[in-house]
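Run log, item B.
One chain of 478 residues. Sequence copied directly from the ordering sheet:
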Amino acid sequence: MKLEDFSIFELSYLLKKRQIRAVEIVERYLSIIEEKNSKLNAFISVNERALEEAKRVDESISRGEAIPPYAGIPIAVKDNINIKGMETTCASEILKGYIATYDATAVRKLREKGFIFIGKTNMDEFAMGSSTEFSSFGPSRNPHDPERVAGGSSGGSAVAVASGMAQAALGSDTGGSIRLPASFCGVYGLKPTYGRVSRYGLVAYASSLDQIGPIARNVEDIAILLSVISGWDENDSTTSTMPVSDFFEYIFENRDRETYRIALPEEYWGEGLSIEVRKVLEEFLGFLKMNLFKIEKVSLPHTKYAIPSYYIIAMAEASSNLGRFDGVRYGRRVEGRTFREMIENTRGEFFGEEVKRRVLLGTFVLSAGYYEDYYLKAQKARTLIINDFKNIFREYDFVLAPTSPTLPFRIGEKIDDPLKMYLSDIYTVSPNLAGLPALNIPVGFSNGLPVGIQLIGNYFSENRMLKFAYFVEKEYSG
């Protein structure tokens, strides 16, 4: 059994029993990164202090000192989440060389539990994209076929986990940016309930939609990471005061299988879903029916407004959030004859084309003449989408939907057609608009490429979602 096949819990147990050393674990992952990263481009930077930190863990264990529960376990972090003393670039030219001066709350919580940060992962610039092709460091490549995309914007994190370069990873999800790459790379990826995890230290794209979440090869690791990073944070007023349960412990409690009521929205299973993806997902639904789960077709009638509403709201918030990158407060600068010219030169030189497109469109929909026609209508449609889900969850435990309408597409296939690229998120944006938790579960392959299904739960129902996913992981071999 390879080292990277163990779970976080298993590695922690072996460390504490002195059957393995933290240095061995970190060296193993660093060697895989050295072997694979030049081809797959998952990492933007690698933590030069990782081995030092591992040595300190081993020294503490040898002295018989108490160590944090997950000391010595390496984890990767998307490069829009701050780690103090490491570069945070958001895969953008404008932030190259910027060293974070503080830890994001999620990072601080992981550090307190002993995790070692192995490196920062590639992404679409400022998390704006669905393929990780909009990175100033070049695209991440799918480990199952390097000529295809990894999904985005957390593509580097998904590739790092799927290829064995990291035990697990953090990503961020604004409209599917954890779930889509998790589906394309064949791993688990969770977008938590909005407010479950602090956004403090996450470089903002769209503040009312962004959430940090875990990516891992198994449900146990997702549960452990979620337990660690969740909870109220005084630095983020949008975090919830809901108590955080031990998700890892929950999935092992009461081994009797529950009979869940599952809704299949007809809007997600109709035209646009590719034949290859549909075939794999229908086989999985057949497995659920054989296990006597109650599965019924329902309607989420306002789903048709999800993509336009999402992109109007996301771009509007992006135009505001990215205003801080002006050559004065953060990042690099291109001089000009006047203050205005300096800002124009800096943003013109260092922002990529997709970022410029979204900032311009966001500024347009917020402008005095168009605010009511676009932004206000998008917010009203968002309310209708939220109400659709609330109605469904009065009768059902979960909603099941495809994660992606297609298999991973080829690099370059959609990059020149923004509308085609945006439609990659057609099944994933609604949970962000509604603030609901959603989990990609890998359920099979088609033509050698992974296919995932998306489990959407009610607010703060991550414990039951993970228990369902754990049952699938252990019982389904599609």
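Observations after the first pass:
- The radius of gyration is 21 Å.
- The mean pLDDT is 96.
Flagged for discussion on Thursday.
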